[in-house]
Amino acid sequence: MTVGGWRAARVVEVADATPSARVLRVTVPGWAGSEAGQHVDIRLTAEDGYQAVRSYSLGSYGASETIELAVDEIPEGEVSPYLVRDVRPGDELEVKGPLGGYFVWRPGGADPVQLIAGGSGVVPLVAIARAAKDAGAAASLRLLYSVRTPTDAIYRDELNGSAADGGVAVTWRYTRAAPDGWEGAVGRIDAEALRAAAWPPDRRPIVYVCGPTGFVEHVADALVELGHAPERIKTERFGGA
Ligand SMILES: Cc1cc2nc3c(=O)[nH]c(=O)nc-3n(C[C@H](O)[C@H](O)[C@H](O)COP(=O)(O)OP(=O)(O)OC[C@H]3O[C@@H](n4cnc5c(N)ncnc54)[C@H](O)[C@@H]3O)c2cc1C
């Protein structure tokens, strides 16, 4: 049943993804399905009636009534520490959605697609990568994923095996510490990193950039400076500085 667009939902599985992030699987009876790249609003209600609402991207897509979220803990945050540390299978919460029609990927486009993620911004891009693989379109997509260190990468195993498994090619960018034997640069995504890993501007890719607000703005500026058309850059800002 929905009241004001909110559906009662139940957490069915939680799995640690990194020291600060967890993947949650949530069953939403009556869920209408979602497109790759969409998000939901999650509403929590405390015993005293206090409510908090936050947005979370879907790592899943398609018709299943069980959706997947991945939440990274913001220290001192109101909602994310609860979702990462405390929520258990069987717990109830409310879900509204799917939301967002702009930051969405659909099969059938002729242009190459560049996905660029910072931190938990990888979640909707994983949904897109999964959808592209399922549609047999993975060869036209690339993912550049910026994380502090290898252990901070949500979906690390899936993304490490992606290209070999017929999925999207993934390039890692580490901002603080790289794995042993890493020969690439360490630091923020810059023009050099984009030149090396991303589809070049003359291929006219559609670019999806997602992550903390500062990351998204920095990457979008660097893309435009390299010659990418601003109207071909889609952004999703998760908040923060
Ligand atoms: C469309 C959309 C999709 C999102 N998808 C995801 C997702 O898939 N996974 C996920 O983990 N989060 C996602 N977020 C962020 C999420 O909605 C919350 O903002 C985040 O979990 C922090 O909530 P909080 O209640 O813990 O912190 P708050 O109590 O709201 O904030 C505490 C402090 O942290 C800062 N802050 C808030 N968000 C961030 C951030 N993302 N990075 C850095 N600082 C921040 C605030 O400015 C504030 O100073 C998404 C946001 C949007 C708008």
Describe it for me?
The chain has 241 residues and is α/β, with parallel strands linked by helices. The protein has helices at residues 80-86, 122-134, 156-160, 191-197, 213-226; strands spanning 2-3, 6-18, 21-27, 39-45, 51-57, 66-72, 92-99, 113-118, 141-147, 169-174, 206-211, 233-237. It has 2 domains: 2-99, Elongation Factor Tu (Ef-tu), domain 3 (Beta Barrel), CATH 2.40.30.10; 113-238, Rossmann fold, CATH 3.40.50. A hairpin with a 2-residue loop joins strand 2 (6-18) and strand 3 (21-27). The radius of gyration is 18 Å and the shape is globular. The N and C termini lie far apart (37 Å). Flavin-adenine dinucleotide binds next to strand 5 and strand 6.
Helicity range = 10-25%
Q: Distance N terminus to C terminus? A: 37 Å
Described by strand count, sense and barrel closure, the largest sheet is: 7 strands, antiparallel
CATH architecture designation of the largest domain: 3-Layer(aba) Sandwich
Look at the structure and give the mean pLDDT.
97
CATH class of the largest domain: Alpha Beta
Number of helices: 5
Shape: globular
Output the helix-strand order. EEEEEEHEEHEHEHEHE
Q: Could you list the spans in which at least 5 consecutive residues all have pLDDT below 50?
A: none
How are the elements arranged and paired?
Blueprint: E1 2-3, E2 6-18, E3 21-27, E4 39-45, E5 51-57, E6 66-72, H1 80-86, E7 92-99, E8 113-118, H2 122-134, E9 141-147, H3 156-160, E10 169-174, H4 191-197, E11 206-211, H5 213-226, E12 233-237
Bound molecules: flavin-adenine dinucleotide.
